[in-house]
Structure formats: C-alpha cells, structure tokens
C-alpha cells in the first residue's frame, strides 16, 4: 500500500497553484444529466473522487471526453459530458459506497427521466450521514420514494416533477444541491428555505443559469427556481478549492513559512482567513492569489464549525494540527458531524496534547511534535497528519493515503515544490 513519507522541519516558501474545487466538481458533473446537449467543465481537478464520478456518469450513459487545460498543462482539465440519452437510471451500490456524493444523481435523473434508483450510501467514517433531507425534498417536488433492498427508488408523478416548497430543518449542502438541480427541470416554481449558502452552491447556481435555468436569490438562504422544459449546452469554469487553499495556508503556518496560494478566492474563505489572522498569520490578498506568512509564534483560537459563512467543518482537522503548536490553549467545537475527531489519537501519537469531550476538543499547544507512523481515516484527517508531519522533528509516515488522493491534487508535487521533504513510496 502506498504511503507518504515526510521529513519534517522545513520552512515552506513559494507559490502553490490551487486546483478546481472537489466539492464543486462533484455537484457540477451531475448537471450534465439535465440536458441532451454538451456540458463542458473546465478547471477540473485530477482526483480519485472526480474520476469516480465520471465513471458513474459513463454507467448512466453519459459520454465524456477529457482534455488538458488550454495552456497545455493538464492542471485544470476540461471535461465535456454529453447525456444525449440516459442509458440507466440506477446508481449501483458498488459505486455509491465508495463515493457518497453519488446521491447527487438522484435529483437530475428524477427530473430528466422521471425515475431514479440510488443505493443507500451506508455509514461513513465521519458519522452517520443520513440522506433523509434529500428524500423529503424530492417528495416536496412530487416524487414518490420507496426504500427496498438497500436502494432508494424514486418516481416522479405523470408529467414529471413539479415545483414545490422545500424548508430544510437543518442546513444541508448536498440536499440543497440535489433539489436545485431537480427544480431546474420541474414544472413551475420551487422555493428552497434554509438553503445552504456554501460557495460551491453558488458555483452550481451559476452553471445551471448558464444552462438556461432561472434562479433568484443566488448566494442567500432562500432560493427561488422557475423550472424550465429543457436546459441547454454550456461551459463552466469550476471555482478554486477553498479547502485545499486553506490546507496549504495551514502548511505555511505550521512551518513558519510564506506561501502564495495562486488563484485562491478570498471571498469564499473569509472565516478561514479570519482564523489564520487571529492565529497570528499575515494574510494579504494579492492580484494572483492569497499570501499567507508566518511572522511569529502561533496564537491559540476558539472556533466552532457551522454552515457557511461560518468556519467550515472541512478545515477543522487542519486547524487542529496547526493549533497543536500554538502558544496556549485552543478550543474547537464540531457542530456539523459527529465522530469527526478521528485524527486526534494520531496527532497525540506525534506529541500533540488534545482532550476531547463530546463535540469539543481542547488543544494545549506543545513546543514540538515528533514524527511517527500514522494512519489516515478520512480525507481532511489525513491532511492534518501531513501538516503535523511537515512541522514534526524526524520522519512521519502517513498510511492509507488513498483518502488524500480523493481530495488533494498532486499533494507531494505541490509541497515539494515549496521546499517540503515529502515522497510517496509503495509499501506493504
Ligand atoms: C458536503 C461536503 C462535505 C462537507 C459538508 C458540510 C460535498 C461532496 N461534501 O457534504 O465535504 O463536510 O458538506 O459542509 O460537497 N444531514 C442529514 N440528512 C441529510 C443530509 C445531511 O441529517 O439528508 C446532516 C449530516 O449528517 C450533517 C449535516 O446534515 O450533520 C450537514 O451535512 P451536509 O451539508 O448534507 O453534508 P454533505 O452534503 O454530505
């Protein structure tokens, strides 16, 4: 099994190109199901999850072609997806269990074909993660839902989905995305109350609008969609990955470094950048990206994760690694997912002092971390171990790095280009 080996203690300095956003890509790819004309996505990151989603689209009958970026590199690929005809309306267990985001084909398939069968995703490393909100939202658009043999079978009424009112009891990124895509092709008006406001949702709205959808309230928590009979061809550039950018910002912080996060969008990262500033980093927005510079000791923080625009749960683990070396005691509270502290015992093995009580983690800064073999458990947890390894004395081996390949494009290349001593090796 591949592993990443890091010899820590090097200061990182230079430019890190930020890739297209994984979570935006995973909701933009299924948009192709909404039209028989081609959808071209540019700035597509090369990630296991994106390739997995492309494979799912092929299974459903979508033709895909992929090319390097126009500037000749294959950073930021272009993918054209054409769903002239839908060959299957089933997302099978084998794909869904590996990639939870597969549930995002439910809304588009129901809207276009009047039916969809999607495997229940099952458990997940960061908590239970049910899909009830997705299903209730489809019912609000007239769908009938049946759960049998581990599958969700959904049918639209005769004449197709109709507009409806969806009021989410809690904010869900995925459920908001699913209903947005379905509503774009439903008959009449759909109103979504308590919609998620994550920048990836705004990116989705922009793509749908380019395809001919009519959406009011973009960026807010009340979205109003006028359904269309059909959508058409479009080209859309995927937004930069704010979580990848935030992760490299933590790499600058934890190594006392100075990194320019090329192409990062500060507007999508306010809570992350505020946290970095409060932790003592100098953050400047420059013409070609965001510069993060460590000038002195790291200061402790009190942070709570919450839906956008508050601090994202997807940055909690990386901030925890950084704060393990701060001068003082930090308090982090995770309000989105239960069981999202699986990196804590691994960080502790590297010398971090972290106590977890329920949803709150108390991080008492230590003077140094030491390298150790550690095991990645989920995507962002894995990144927190890489960050700790960059700062630790000696060698850190991160195992189970397939998690990292799901969400960080060319991690070792990007880190070694700015001075890290990091390599990937095959192992047992
Ligand atoms: C998305 C992101 C993920 C991020 C999360 C929160 C993608 C592919 N993934 O995940 O990286 O961590 O947003 O920002 O974009 N919930 C229910 N019922 C549902 C759906 C969700 O109870 O039907 C709960 C979840 O268990 C969780 C909360 O709602 O406690 C928020 O989850 P949600 O926003 O839906 O996360 P995802 O869309 O799965």
Descriptive key words:
428 residues, UDP-n-acetylglucosamine1-carboxyvinyl-transferase, Chain, globular, 26% strand, 4-stranded mixed sheet, alpha/beta, binds uridine-diphosphate-N-acetylglucosamine
SSE class: alpha/beta
How much is the radius of gyration in Å?
21 Å
For the report, how would you describe the main beta sheet? 4 strands, mixed
In what range is the share of β-strand residues? 25-35%
Number of helices: 14
Compute the number of structural domains: 2
The main sheet orders its strands as 22-23-1-24
* CATH fourth-tier homologous superfamily of the largest domain: Enolpyruvate transferase domain
Please mark out the parts with pLDDT under 50 across 5 or more consecutive residues, or reply none: none
What binds here, in terms of ligands, is: uridine-diphosphate-N-acetylglucosamine
Task: Report what the structure shows.
- This protein folds into two domains: 3-19 and 240-425, UDP-n-acetylglucosamine1-carboxyvinyl-transferase, Chain, CATH 3.65.10; 22-237, Alpha-beta prism (UDP-n-acetylglucosamine1-carboxyvinyl-transferase, Chain), CATH 3.65.10.
- Helices cover 29% and strands 26% of the residues.
- It has 14 helices and 24 strands.
- It has helices at 22-28, 48-59, 93-96, 106-113, 132-140, 173-184, 199-210, 242-254, 270-278, 316-323, 344-349, 379-391, 402-407, 411-417, and strands at residues 3-7, 13-17, 39-44, 63-67, 77-82, 90-91, 115-119, 144-148, 151-155, 165-167, 189-193, 214-216, 222-226, 234-237, 258-262, 281-286, 289-294, 302-304, 329-333, 353-357, 360-364, 373-375, 395-399, 421-425.
- The strands form six sheets. Strands 22-23-1-24 form a four-stranded mixed beta sheet.
- The radius of gyration is 21 Å and the shape is globular.
């Amino acid at each position: 099994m591949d592993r990443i080996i890091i010899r820590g203690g090097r200061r990182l300095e230079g430019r890190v190109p930020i890739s297209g956003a994984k979570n935006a890509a995973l909701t933009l790819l299924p948009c192709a199901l909404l039209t028989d004309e081609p959808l071209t996505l540019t700035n597509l990151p090369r990630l296991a999850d994106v390739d997995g989603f492309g494979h799912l689209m092929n299974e459903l009958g979508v033709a895909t072609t992929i090319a390097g970026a126009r500037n000749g590199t294959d950073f930021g690929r272009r993918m054209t997806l054409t769903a002239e005809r839908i060959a299957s309306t089933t997302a099978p267990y084998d794909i869904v269990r590996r990639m939870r985001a597969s549930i995002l084909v439910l809304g588009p398939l129901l809207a276009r074909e009047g039916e969809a069968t999607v495997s229940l995703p099952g458990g997940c490393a960061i908590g239970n993660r049910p899909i009830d909100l997705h299903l209730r939202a489809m019912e609000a658009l007239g769908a009938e839902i049946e759960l049998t043999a581990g599958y969700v079978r959904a049918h639209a009424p005769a004449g197709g989905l109709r507009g409806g009112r969806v009021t989410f009891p809690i904010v869900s990124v995925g459920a908001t995305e699913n209903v947005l895509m379905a509503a774009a092709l439903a008959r009449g008006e759909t109103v979504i109350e308590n919609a998620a406001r994550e920048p990836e949702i705004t990116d989705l709205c922009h793509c749908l609008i380019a395809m001919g959808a009519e959406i009011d309230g973009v960026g807010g928590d009340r979205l109003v969609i006028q359904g269309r009979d059909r959508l058409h061809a479009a080209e859309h550039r995927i937004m930069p990955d704010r979580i990848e950018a935030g992760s490299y910002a933590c790499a600058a912080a934890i190594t006392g470094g100075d990194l320019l996060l090329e192409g990062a969008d500060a507007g999508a990262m306010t809570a992350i950048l505020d946290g970095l500033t409060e932790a003592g980093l100098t953050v400047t927005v420059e013409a070609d990206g965001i510069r993060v510079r460590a000038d002195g000791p790291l200061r402790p923080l009190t942070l709570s994760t919450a839906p956008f625009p508050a601090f994202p749960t997807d940055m909690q683990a990386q901030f925890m690694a950084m704060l393990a070396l701060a001068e003082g005691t930090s308090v982090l509270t995770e309000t989105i997912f239960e069981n999202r502290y699986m990196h804590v015992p691994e960080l502790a093995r590297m010398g971090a002092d972290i106590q977890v009580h329920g949803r709150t983690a108390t991080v008492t800064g230590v003077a140094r971390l030491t390298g150790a073999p550690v095991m990645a458990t989920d995507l962002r947890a894995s990144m927190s171990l890489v960050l700790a390894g960059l700062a630790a004395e000696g060698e850190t081996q991160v195992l189970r790095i397939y998690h990292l390949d799901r969400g960080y494009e060319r991690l070792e290349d990007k880190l070694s280009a700015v001075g890290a001593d990091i390599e990937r090796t095959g192992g047992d």
